[in-house]
Amino acid sequence: MTTILIGYARCSTDRQDLAAQRAALEVLGVAPDRIYVDRGLTGTSRSRPGLDQALAATRTGDTLVVPKLDRLARSVPDARGIADALVARGVRLALGASVYDPADPMGKMFFNVLATFAEFESDLIRLRTREGMAIARSRGKLRGKQPKLSAKQQREVRRMHGAGEHTIGDLADLFSVSRPTIYRTLNRPAPEG
User: Fold this and answer.
1) pTM value > 0.85
2) What is the number of other CB atoms lying within 10 angstroms of the CB of residue 87?
3) Contact between residue 61 and residue 5 where contact means Cβ atoms under 8 Å apart
4) What was the pLDDT predicted at 54?
5) Active-site residue set
6) Can you give the chain as a three-state secondary structure string?
């Protein structure tokens, strides 16, 4: 039976490049056509189609290779769940050049420590993001999602609706927006100006 190496790479945003992870996987012996990727998905989201495909591609005796544990999962329970599911199917997990051995107490402890650090790093990123958003909000730089209609268009929607000239659907078609946008416009306070 031939052991097949299946690779998985992930980046959190669409602007990040997967080239370094792909190159690392190829150096570790993974064929380019056996590398599955997720782009723009966080490790905390369990809905990762590329990971699902990589897991589905593995068979007993194969090895799932990830460049680093934080590319696989960003929480201890998720990392443990994935590792345990692989072990139950007879699939090995390689973190870089190191193969995770669940029978080795040191390997198990090392895996858990790495998963804890990955979760900690994810929590720090979230905390910094919230702090940055709070600072931007206090400076008036973060205002949230802006209305789709200008103040003038909003006044006109109110006037036309108030006059009974048009239905909500008509207004949505006239202003090229959705019906919920018209409802939101009518329910929010009238813009000044």
Assistant:
1) no
2) 15
3) no
4) 94
5) 12
6) CCCCEEEEEEECCCCCCCHHHHHHHHHCCCCHHHEEEEECCCCCCCCCHHHHHHHHHCCCCCEEEECCHHHHCCCHHHHHHHHHHHHHCCCEEEECCEEECCCCHHHHHHHHHHHHHHHHHHHHHHHHHHHHHHHHHHCCCCCCCCCCCCHHHHHHHHHHHHCCCCCHHHHHHHHCCCHHHHHHHHHCCCCCC
